[in-house]
Amino acid sequence: MKLQGKFNKSLANPVYADTITQREFCIIDTRMPEDYQQAHISEAENIFDFATLSQKILENPDVDFLIHCYSGHTVSVYGSHLVEMGAKNVFYFDGSFAEIYNAIQKIK
């Protein structure tokens, strides 16, 4: 397995602001609930603990999941663990919350 990503290396597939529209994703925000409440992508589900996140992704292999956090670091680590657990449907946003938020707002 090969590490990918420009800013945060992971075994999962990275997604960037300029490529976010290339496929449909179920978006999961892994930030803390209080930060999610302050600002979030309207379509995003908030799952901040790894056990719940991994269960959802592994139980839905036909859905492509895009996970994001504050900076891309946490989801790069989560993405690697999920790939090691057998997930082929996990992508991570390799950038900041502000970048993904602005990219999604532009395509609405």
Automatic annotation (TrEMBL):
It comes from the Bacteria. Pfam families: Rhodanese (PF00581). Residues 21-105 form the Rhodanese domain. Gene3D superfamilies: Rhodanese-like domain (3.40.250.10). This is Rhodanese domain-containing protein. It comes from Helicobacter fennelliae MRY12-0050.
